[in-house]
Protein backbone atom coordinates (compact mmCIF):
# COMPACT_ATOMS: atom_id res chain seq x y z
CA UNK A 1 0.00 0.00 0.00
CA UNK A 2 1.23 3.47 -0.87
CA UNK A 3 0.84 6.51 1.35
CA UNK A 4 -1.94 8.95 0.54
CA UNK A 5 -1.75 12.76 0.55
CA UNK A 6 2.06 12.98 0.54
CA UNK A 7 4.48 13.69 -2.29
CA UNK A 8 5.96 10.45 -3.65
CA UNK A 9 8.84 9.79 -6.05
CA UNK A 10 9.56 7.03 -8.52
CA UNK A 11 11.82 4.21 -7.21
CA UNK A 12 15.59 4.74 -7.34
CA UNK A 13 15.87 1.62 -9.49
CA UNK A 14 14.50 3.61 -12.42
CA UNK A 15 17.90 5.30 -12.71
CA UNK A 16 19.59 1.88 -12.86
CA UNK A 17 17.05 0.82 -15.50
CA UNK A 18 17.91 3.77 -17.77
CA UNK A 19 21.64 3.32 -17.17
CA UNK A 20 21.41 -0.36 -18.17
CA UNK A 21 19.41 0.57 -21.30
CA UNK A 22 22.10 3.04 -22.35
CA UNK A 23 24.85 0.49 -21.68
CA UNK A 24 23.05 -2.14 -23.79
CA UNK A 25 22.49 0.36 -26.62
CA UNK A 26 26.16 1.42 -26.53
CA UNK A 27 27.24 -2.22 -26.55
CA UNK A 28 25.03 -2.93 -29.59
CA UNK A 29 26.54 0.01 -31.46
CA UNK A 30 30.01 -1.22 -30.49
CA UNK A 31 29.21 -4.69 -31.88
CA UNK A 32 27.86 -3.23 -35.13
CA UNK A 33 31.01 -1.16 -35.65
CA UNK A 34 33.39 -3.99 -34.67
CA UNK A 35 33.91 -5.03 -38.24
CA UNK A 36 37.56 -5.43 -39.22
CA UNK A 37 39.21 -2.47 -40.91
CA UNK A 38 37.17 0.32 -39.30
CA UNK A 39 38.95 0.57 -35.95
CA UNK A 40 39.47 4.35 -36.22
CA UNK A 41 35.84 4.98 -37.17
CA UNK A 42 34.69 2.74 -34.30
CA UNK A 43 36.80 4.67 -31.81
CA UNK A 44 35.46 8.00 -33.06
CA UNK A 45 31.84 6.84 -33.01
CA UNK A 46 32.14 5.33 -29.53
CA UNK A 47 33.80 8.48 -28.17
CA UNK A 48 31.13 10.64 -29.79
CA UNK A 49 28.35 8.44 -28.36
CA UNK A 50 29.74 8.45 -24.84
CA UNK A 51 30.54 12.16 -24.55
CA UNK A 52 27.89 13.80 -26.71
CA UNK A 53 24.94 11.44 -26.36
CA UNK A 54 25.14 9.12 -23.35
CA UNK A 55 26.37 11.59 -20.72
CA UNK A 56 23.87 14.36 -21.64
CA UNK A 57 21.04 11.80 -21.79
CA UNK A 58 21.97 10.49 -18.33
CA UNK A 59 22.06 14.04 -16.95
CA UNK A 60 18.65 14.85 -18.43
CA UNK A 61 17.16 11.58 -17.12
CA UNK A 62 18.56 12.30 -13.65
CA UNK A 63 17.10 15.82 -13.68
CA UNK A 64 13.72 14.45 -14.82
CA UNK A 65 13.85 11.88 -12.02
CA UNK A 66 14.60 14.55 -9.40
CA UNK A 67 11.81 16.83 -10.67
CA UNK A 68 9.11 14.15 -10.91
CA UNK A 69 6.66 13.55 -8.08
CA UNK A 70 3.08 12.50 -7.61
CA UNK A 71 0.46 12.73 -4.87
CA UNK A 72 -2.29 10.13 -4.52
CA UNK A 73 -5.44 11.36 -2.82
CA UNK A 74 -8.81 9.69 -2.19
CA UNK A 75 -10.33 10.82 -5.49
CA UNK A 76 -7.45 12.02 -7.70
CA UNK A 77 -3.77 11.85 -8.46
CA UNK A 78 -1.53 14.83 -9.12
CA UNK A 79 1.58 14.33 -11.27
CA UNK A 80 4.27 17.02 -11.21
CA UNK A 81 7.14 16.98 -13.70
CA UNK A 82 9.45 19.13 -15.79
CA UNK A 83 13.00 20.42 -15.70
CA UNK A 84 12.67 23.94 -17.07
CA UNK A 85 8.93 24.05 -17.70
CA UNK A 86 7.14 22.71 -14.64
CA UNK A 87 3.87 20.87 -15.29
CA UNK A 88 1.27 19.77 -12.80
CA UNK A 89 -1.48 17.45 -13.98
CA UNK A 90 -4.52 16.66 -11.82
CA UNK A 91 -6.23 13.43 -12.85
CA UNK A 92 -9.60 12.82 -11.17
CA UNK A 93 -10.29 9.11 -10.73
CA UNK A 94 -13.80 9.46 -12.18
CA UNK A 95 -12.23 10.42 -15.54
CA UNK A 96 -9.84 7.45 -15.60
CA UNK A 97 -10.83 4.91 -18.24
CA UNK A 98 -8.03 2.41 -17.66
CA UNK A 99 -4.76 1.88 -15.81
CA UNK A 100 -2.49 -0.23 -17.99
CA UNK A 101 0.51 -1.96 -16.42
CA UNK A 102 3.50 -2.65 -18.67
CA UNK A 103 6.94 -4.04 -17.97
CA UNK A 104 9.59 -5.28 -20.33
CA UNK A 105 12.25 -7.86 -19.62
CA UNK A 106 14.69 -5.43 -18.00
CA UNK A 107 11.93 -3.78 -15.96
CA UNK A 108 10.74 -7.18 -14.69
CA UNK A 109 14.33 -8.03 -13.72
CA UNK A 110 14.36 -4.86 -11.56
CA UNK A 111 10.78 -5.47 -10.27
CA UNK A 112 9.54 -2.29 -11.95
CA UNK A 113 6.26 -1.67 -13.77
CA UNK A 114 5.08 1.29 -15.81
CA UNK A 115 1.52 2.34 -14.96
CA UNK A 116 -0.09 4.15 -17.91
CA UNK A 117 -3.12 6.17 -16.83
CA UNK A 118 -5.70 6.58 -19.59
CA UNK A 119 -8.50 9.13 -19.26
CA UNK A 120 -11.26 10.39 -21.51
CA UNK A 121 -9.15 13.43 -22.39
CA UNK A 122 -8.95 14.38 -26.08
CA UNK A 123 -5.37 15.56 -25.41
CA UNK A 124 -4.30 11.89 -25.52
CA UNK A 125 -4.90 11.76 -29.26
CA UNK A 126 -2.09 13.23 -31.35
CA UNK A 127 -2.64 13.59 -35.09
CA UNK A 128 0.45 13.66 -37.31
CA UNK A 129 0.43 13.15 -41.09
CA UNK A 130 -3.27 12.18 -41.04
CA UNK A 131 -2.61 9.37 -38.56
CA UNK A 132 -3.66 9.36 -34.94
CA UNK A 133 -1.47 8.20 -32.10
CA UNK A 134 -2.90 7.55 -28.66
CA UNK A 135 -0.74 8.33 -25.64
CA UNK A 136 -1.60 7.90 -21.97
CA UNK A 137 -2.62 10.97 -19.99
CA UNK A 138 0.23 10.22 -17.60
CA UNK A 139 2.52 7.39 -16.55
CA UNK A 140 4.35 6.46 -13.38
CA UNK A 141 7.07 3.85 -12.98
CA UNK A 142 6.69 1.96 -9.70
CA UNK A 143 7.66 -1.29 -8.05
CA UNK A 144 5.39 -4.04 -9.40
CA UNK A 145 3.40 -4.51 -6.19
CA UNK A 146 2.86 -0.73 -5.84
CA UNK A 147 1.71 -0.49 -9.46
CA UNK A 148 -0.85 -3.25 -8.91
CA UNK A 149 -2.05 -1.51 -5.74
CA UNK A 150 -2.33 1.82 -7.61
CA UNK A 151 -4.28 0.21 -10.45
CA UNK A 152 -6.74 -1.40 -8.01
CA UNK A 153 -7.04 1.78 -5.91
CA UNK A 154 -7.80 4.01 -8.91
CA UNK A 155 -10.29 1.61 -10.48
CA UNK A 156 -11.99 0.94 -7.11
CA UNK A 157 -12.42 4.69 -6.48
CA UNK A 158 -13.48 5.36 -10.05
Shape: elongated
- What structural class results from the helix and strand content? alpha+beta
Largest sheet: 4 strands, antiparallel
Radius of gyration using CA atoms only: 19 Å
Succession of helices and strands: EHHEEEEHEEEEH
Percentage of residues in helical conformation: 40-55%
Average pLDDT reading: 87
Please count the helical segments: 4
Which regions have little confidence, pLDDT < 50, spanning 5+ residues? none
- Estimated share of beta-strand residues: 25-35%
Give the spatial strand order of the biggest sheet. Answer: 1-2-3-4
Tell me about this structure:
The protein is an alpha+beta fold. The chain has one domain. It contains 4 helices and 9 strands, in the order βααββββαββββα. The strands form 3 sheets. The protein has a 4-stranded antiparallel sheet. A hairpin with a 5-residue loop joins β3 (76-81) and β4 (87-92). The chain is elongated, with a radius of gyration of 19 Å. The relative contact order is 0.15. The mean pLDDT is 87.
Amino acid sequence: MMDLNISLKMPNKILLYYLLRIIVLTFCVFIIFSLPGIRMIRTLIMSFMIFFINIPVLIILFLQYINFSFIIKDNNITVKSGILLKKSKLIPFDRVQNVELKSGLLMRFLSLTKANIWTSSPAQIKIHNKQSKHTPDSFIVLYAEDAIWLQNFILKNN
